[in-house]
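Renewal narrative, Specific Aim 1. Our central claim is that a sequence can be written position by position from structural information alone. The example that follows is taken directly from our test logs and has not been curated for this report. It begins with the structure tokens describing the chain, in the order in which they were read.
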């Protein structure tokens, strides 16, 4: 992977006396290369810790995770690497020398990558974690960052640079596969997690990672340098505020894990606080993104929105969109009350809500929400697609109520959604007749559920009586629609190379003596809803040669 680097000032002040110095890029690069050669990655970590130990580390129980290291039957070298770099436990100089060698250790200590921890004992001052994203075909990309508060008790500094966490992993899972030769903007790239994964996922990808934090870009540069020989993509790191470093540029994909925390316009942690009031960060990204998308380009944003009494996510996000030129799909994962939201983010920075500082912070934050009539905070994803400039903007907002099916990839669903929406937009000008004249296939992963409940009158049991029938997808987000028997019968007759939907419906009406005009008028909007959720697939998008990929390359 080729890489253009930023000119990070050599006198960049560290966040604290023990934070990695700005010049640490080269020694970090050397360390990452050494760890890769030693096999440090997901397989080694699971081999040493086991599933229970990995879970203990992820849930903030470092001693429990270390207990698993002590009893592991893995090779001594693997145990030492995992204990030193994954769990960040203290290590003697002699053992450290065996791990990485005297020459590199001297550089790492000089650059504050390792710091003293008692007499002749040292501890890693950076977090180094592998990231594997199967949905993008990327395995064991090593990411160095500042340590979070999961394994030791400290409050992250204002310039804290996070690494592999739930936020980037969640966003990566919602980004469609990147096409070869694409241009990608990673807005607020931090330590480079999204940039490096996406640059490693396809051929000849050009990625620009921007950030306002020079410390973040220094980490991103170091992380990118060790990966440079492993992919043909290009990564450029640019310093600046929001979209300023890429003014007048266009991209095929825009990805953003911005500082989206909803609250007062303060900046206590640059990675999460934007300095904009309430949900101003999400609003700014959503309002600005369309101007940086190429034709048919898409944006994928991890987002939060403040909701006032009786206000919906649809109303809030709609106010940020242009009147024309954008197709938007908003997936709301959850809504939380102000108290839960504030407590969660205080704990994120290791502030105990029970202590005096935590109580004071909670009071100020809650008062600010009350002053602005905020009753809930919505959390989720905002996906945008650039469509024709004169086409009315489309907005679909849906709750993501169910966990994804095992092995499912939300990003694939996002790509399919835009393909389905484009097809629906193409026929919308022809009225309901167009969808009735189309050919369809049923999604192979569609299940018909029939629910019956016990029925009885005052004296006699009536056994089980039909209550409701549903069509439910067993893949992806598992959308579900209630259906009746006439619709079930018609859908059972569709085939991409057989009769159009209208003919199937008219056959049903003829057999059952039903008025076909009224029946078809009621059927058309139902078919639109089923297409939108990928249950009924237009023949133009269907590729029956690939059972696991139901959309043709041309359509999707």
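The sequence written for that structure reads:
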């Amino acid at each position: 992977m080729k890489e253009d680097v930023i000119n990070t000032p050599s006198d960049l002040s560290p966040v604290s006396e023990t934070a990695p110095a700005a010049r640490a890029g080269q020694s970090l690069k050397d360390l990452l290369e050494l760890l890769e050669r030693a096999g440090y990655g997901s397989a080694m970590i699971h081999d040493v810790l086991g599933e229970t130990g990995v879970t203990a580390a992820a849930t903030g129980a470092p001693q429990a995770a270390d207990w698993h290291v002590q009893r592991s039957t893995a090779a001594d070298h693997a145990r030492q690497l995992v204990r030193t770099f994954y769990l960040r436990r203290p290590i003697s100089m002699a053992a450290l020398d065996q791990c990485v060698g005297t020459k590199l250790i001297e550089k790492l200590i000089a650059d504050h990558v390792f710091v003293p921890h008692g007499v002749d004992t040292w501890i890693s001052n950076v977090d180094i974690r592998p990231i594997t994203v199967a949905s993008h075909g990327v395995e064991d990309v090593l990411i160095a960052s500042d340590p979070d508060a999961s394994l030791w008790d400290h409050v992250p500094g204002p310039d804290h640079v996070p690494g592999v966490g739930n936020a980037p992993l969640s966003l990566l899972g919602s980004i469609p596969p990147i096409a070869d030769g694409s241009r990608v903007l990673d807005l607020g790239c931090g330590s480079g997690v999204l940039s490096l994964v996406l640059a490693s996922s396809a051929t000849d990808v050009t990625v620009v990672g921007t950030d306002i934090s020079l410390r973040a870009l220094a980490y991103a540069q170091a992380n990118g340098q060790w990966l440079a020989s492993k992919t043909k993509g290009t990564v450029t790191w640019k310093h600046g505020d929001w979209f300023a470093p890429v003014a007048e540029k266009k991209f095929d994909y825009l990805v953003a894990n911005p500082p989206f925390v909803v609250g007062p316009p303060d900046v206590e942690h640059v990675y999460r606080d934007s300095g904009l009031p309430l949900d101003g960060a999400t609003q700014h990204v959503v309002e600005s993104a369309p101007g940086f998308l190429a034709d048919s380009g898409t944006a994928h944003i991890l987002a939060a929105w403040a909701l006032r009494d009786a206000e919906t996510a649809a109303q809030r996000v709609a106010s940020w969109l242009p009147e024309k030129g954008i197709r938007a799909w908003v997936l709301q994962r959850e809504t939380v009350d102000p108290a839960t939201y504030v407590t969660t983010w205080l704990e994120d920075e290791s502030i105990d809500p029970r202590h005096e500082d935590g109580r004071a912070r909670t009071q100020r934050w809650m008062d600010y929400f009350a002053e602005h009539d905020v009753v809930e905070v919505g959390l989720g994803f905002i996906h945008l697609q650039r469509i024709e400039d004169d086409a009315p903007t489309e907005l679909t907002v849906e709750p993501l109520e169910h966990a994804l099916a095992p092995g499912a990839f939300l990003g694939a669903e996002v790509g399919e959604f835009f393909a389905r929406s484009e097809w629906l937009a193409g026929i919308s000008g022809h009225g309901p007749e167009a969808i009735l004249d189309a050919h369809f296939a049923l999604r192979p992963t569609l299940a018909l559920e029939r629910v019956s409940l016990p029925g009885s009158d005052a004296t006699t049991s009536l056994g089980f009586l039909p209550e409701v029938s549903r069509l439910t997808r067993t893949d992806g987000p598992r959308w579900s629609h209630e259906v009746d028997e006439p619709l079930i019968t018609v859908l059972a007759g569709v085939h991409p190379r057989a009769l159009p939907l209208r003919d199937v419906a008219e056959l049903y009406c003829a057999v059952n003596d039903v008025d076909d005009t009224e029946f078809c008028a009621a059927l058309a909007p139902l078919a639109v809803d089923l297409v939108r959720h990928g249950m009924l697939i237009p023949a133009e998008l269907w590729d029956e040669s690939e059972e696991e990929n139901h959309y043709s390359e041309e359509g999707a």
